[in-house]
Specification:
This protein has about 425 residues and is an alpha+beta fold. The chain has eleven helices and 13 strands. Helix 1 packs antiparallel against helix 6, helix 8 runs parallel beside helix 11 and helix 10 packs antiparallel against helix 11. The N and C termini lie far apart (about 80 Å).
């Protein structure tokens, strides 16, 4: 083996080693972060659940049971006689009752006073007549203490609940997460080794994917082109049938109407597929014809053709230079979308100059689009939420975005505050006059 080959093999080995180390490091860091995050979230959730339950039980003990069974003046014998201690123990809760004047009552607790087991903050909160809770250790066993004063003057109740089962569950969770972290790190090492081996074929895979995408685009273009002629013939034949519709029976008339509508939608779909195929072509960006456009008249003309009832708002005499054909196609598709989804309500088309950009907005009063779907409506064959009815192909807004890409324009959609959808195009233009 030559020295050059040895150096190349050594360099490749170092690259593979660095790749494996990087993958293992990333997997280990991610596994540790996820494990810590999972532990914190589960711990907080579990403790919050226990705390909420015990606070509610303490509220019931003090506000209901103690109020019903104890008189205004309470002594240690009164608590035994009332059966409160037995009720508390049956619920798995030990209780310490501060009766005041040096008297107290405790059931099953190896503490001198509850105040020695809890912090001063808890005692202060109880003195203020508020509920307080704290996690403490008694005889190396975890307890949750919930304290409250029976209104208005006491006595003060301190409820101790053994929560060692929570600690055991969290300890088990720590062991599981640690094992999972180690296992993921080992898997990361195996994955890194595999990735290092497969790294050499990545470029080839990318080339194959690119070629497959190009084949799919050519296939769509070829199929659309082949369908264009027979679909045109079908449209003509359906039109001839519709011309004779008055002479047909009611049942046959409905079939002809459905056939005519479906054939026309098929024609529109084929035309849109052909247009997308042309936009996907490599030289689409070079196919730009810049001409002078009088914005108000231009918008009025497009609206008159696509949606005559739309209201047009644009400054008179505003003229810019841009690709009129592409701009017309974008505005026409937005008007078609508003007609299809606007449910026959008000549609406005506005145009104004913002610096060196022409801003055109088409807004309807339809049901709008869920916020999560706003970006997806520009994807091919996306029809958005079912609330926005219509029978479009799902390609109209995708064509708008492709034309915008060629013109280096921005297209965005947003829901209007008082209902409806607004789609905005910002096209870079050369300003001729702004009167």
């Amino acid at each position: 083996m030559s020295d050059a080959a040895v150096r190349a093999e050594g360099s490749a080995g170092r690259v593979r080693t660095r790749l494996v180390v990087t993958v293992v490091g990333v997997v280990a860091v991610v596994a540790v972060v996820l494990s810590v995050l999972a532990y914190v979230l589960v711990s907080q959730s579990l403790r919050a659940e226990v705390l909420d339950r015990e606070v509610e039980e303490a509220r019931f003990h003090v506000s209901v049971l103690a109020e019903e069974r104890l008189g205004p003046t309470v002594g240690p014998d009164d608590i035994d006689a009332s059966g409160l201690a037995d009720d508390f123990q049956r619920r798995g809760t030990e209780v310490y009752v501060d009766l005041g004047d040096g008297e107290d009552f405790a059931s099953g607790l190896d503490v001198v006073t509850a105040q020695e087991a809890v912090s001063d903050e808890v005692v202060d909160l109880v003195d203020e007549g508020r509920f307080a809770a704290e996690w403490v250790d008694i005889r190396d066993t975890s307890h949750l203490v919930v304290a409250a004063r029976r209104p208005p003057d006491g006595p003060d109740f301190y409820f101790f609940t053994d929560v060692s089962d929570v600690d055991r569950a969290l300890a088990q969770l720590r062991r599981v997460l640690f094992g999972a972290t180690v296992a993921l790190t080992l898997l990361g090492g195996v994955a890194g080794w595999r990735v290092a081996r497969l790294g050499g074929s990545l470029a080839e895979a990318v080339e194959e994917l690119t070629a497959a995408r190009d084949r799919e685009r050519r296939f769509v273009a070829d199929v659309s082109h082949e369908l264009r002629t027979p679909v045109t013939a079908l449209v003509q034949e359906a039109s001839e049938l519709r011309a004779e519709i008055d002479a047909l029976s009611p049942g046959t008339r409905r079939v002809v109407e459905l056939l005519d509508g479906d054939v026309r939608r098929l024609r529109d779909l084929v035309e849109e597929l052909l247009e997308l195929s042309r936009l996907d072509a490599a030289d689409a960006a070079n196919d730009v014809e810049v001409v002078e456009v009088e914005v108000a008249r231009f918008l009025a003309a497009v609206a008159a053709q696509r949606l005559p009832e739309a209201e047009v708002r644009a400054p008179a005499e505003l003229r810019v230079r841009t690709d009129r054909r592409r701009l017309e196609r974008m505005v026409a598709n937005l008007l078609d979308n508003a007609r299809s989804h606007g449910q026959g309500r008000e549609v406005t088309v506005s145009g104004q100059l913002e610096g060196h950009h022409l801003r055109i907005e088409v807004a309807d009063r339809g049901p709008g689009v869920p916020p999560a779907e706003l970006e997806r409506i520009f994807d091919r064959f996306a029809k958005g939420d079912t609330a926005r009815g219509g029978e479009g192909s799902g390609l109209g807004l995708a064509i708008v975005r492709e034309h915008a890409r060629v013109l280096q324009a921005e297209v965005t959609a947003s829901n209007r505050p008082d209902g409806g959808l607004a789609v905005e195009i910002r096209v870079p233009v050369e300003v001729v006059t702004d009167l």
